[in-house]
Amino acid sequence: MKTVIIGSGPAGYTAAIYASRSGLEPVLYEGNQPGGQLTQTTEIDNFPGYPEGTTGNELMDDLRAQAERLGTDIRMGTITAVDFSMDGSRPHVLTIDDGTTIEADTVIISTGASAKYLGLEDEKKYQGMGVSACATCDGFFYRKKTVAVVGGGDTACEEAQYLAGLCKKVYMIVRRDVLRASEAMQKKVKETENIEILWNTQVRGLYGTDGVEGAHLSTGEDLPIDGLFLAIGHHPNSDVFRPALECDAEGYIIVHHPTTETNIPGVFACGDVADPIYRQAISAAGSGCHAAMDARKYLSEK
Ligand SMILES: Cc1cc2nc3c(=O)[nH]c(=O)nc-3n(C[C@H](O)[C@H](O)[C@H](O)COP(=O)(O)OP(=O)(O)OC[C@H]3O[C@@H](n4cnc5c(N)ncnc54)[C@H](O)[C@@H]3O)c2cc1C
Fold it and tell me: What is the pTM assigned to this prediction?
């Protein structure tokens, strides 16, 4: 095969659209979450091209249909092991979860990243109904409302700052009596009038009839809020590709910016799995386009 794309989120499908149109005859493996992270959510308001907004499932169905129309061979299956050719002298070998193996001249990795949750049953119950792991994605729906951000690192501080610009009040729920964020971030948060930090506090559960109305705290108090934002980190889905692929300390695949090239010739990475910063559908889609173009260039020069 010329090109195998791993993952069916916005990055994978966009790579598939571009790869199909440039004659790479891509085969795409969907993994165990067909459509990717957006299938976990309802309203999508910030993906260009949908003037009235859309839903996660609709958007992903559209991307899939477009990739299929252009000729992408979309297959069920998860990649469980890889044997990359470190110098590009032979095809890369991928093992699928049904035990079969395939060979590919180029591989595009678009396996995404999963937000970390606290592990509470209520997080699942209220997912998309007041629980979110992305302020940029969902903050808009909480304008002039009261929300809480869980976490004490740089991301939590950034999310709290972002939400403070939209919401009436933002609580930061911090497990310890210090923030792990940089001094500059801490200062900003502490100086923002509508952010209040609740130290030595954890969320034990959530309550509400048709959505989140409040959180049960470890202090024994109930905190009335309209939304809970988790900001305790992400886990990039790169485990299966390590140690062959260079990754950063958190597991994000390192690419040679501005390209999507990894340390292995013919292996490209795009979307959230290689993006510790933006993690948005449109940026994932954009980098999927780059990966397909990089793969085409690699094959044409081989
Ligand atoms: C609840 C929620 C709401 C969000 N809302 C928005 C929003 O409103 N706007 C926005 O822009 N962004 C939003 N995001 C972020 C957005 O979903 C991500 O930035 C985007 O989906 C990343 O795309 P991706 O293609 O990199 O990966 P993903 O969408 O994570 O897709 C990864 C794909 O890889 C597959 N996969 C993983 N491992 C393997 C493997 N070993 N073999 C084969 N396949 C594999 C999975 O099955 C999946 O199909 C939201 C995220 C969440 C969780």
Answer: 0.88
What are the residue ranges of CATH 3.50.50.60 in the chain?
3-114+234-301, 117-230
Q: Give 273 Cα–ligand 1 centroid separation in angstroms.
A: 9
Q: Which fold has domain 117-230?
A: FAD/NAD(P)-binding domain (3.50.50)
Helices (H) then strands (E): counts for the chain: 7, 20
- Whether residue 244 contacts residue 231, with contact meaning beta carbons closer than 8 Å, is answered with no
CATH of 3-114+234-301, one of 3.90.870.10, 3.40.50.2300, 3.40.50.720, 3.50.50.60: 3.50.50.60
197-214 residue pLDDT tens = 999 999 999 999 999 999
Out of 92, 109, 111, 290, give the residue to mutate to test ligand 1, the one with the largest number of ligand atoms within 8 Å of its CB: 111
Distance 42 CA to ligand 1 centre (A): 14
Residue 9 Cα to ligand 1 middle (Å): 5
Query: Given this model, what pLDDT does residue 157 score?
Result: 94
Residue nearest to atom 41 of ligand 1 (CA): 79
Q: How many CB atoms lie within 10 A of CB 267?
A: 28
Going by C-alpha positions, the residue among 130, 181, 129 that lies closest to residue 160 is 181
Phi, psi dihedral angles at 256 (to 5 degrees): -85, 90
CA pair distance 115, 131, nearest whole angstrom? 12
- Give tens-digit pLDDT for 146-170: 999 999 998 899 999 999 999 999 9
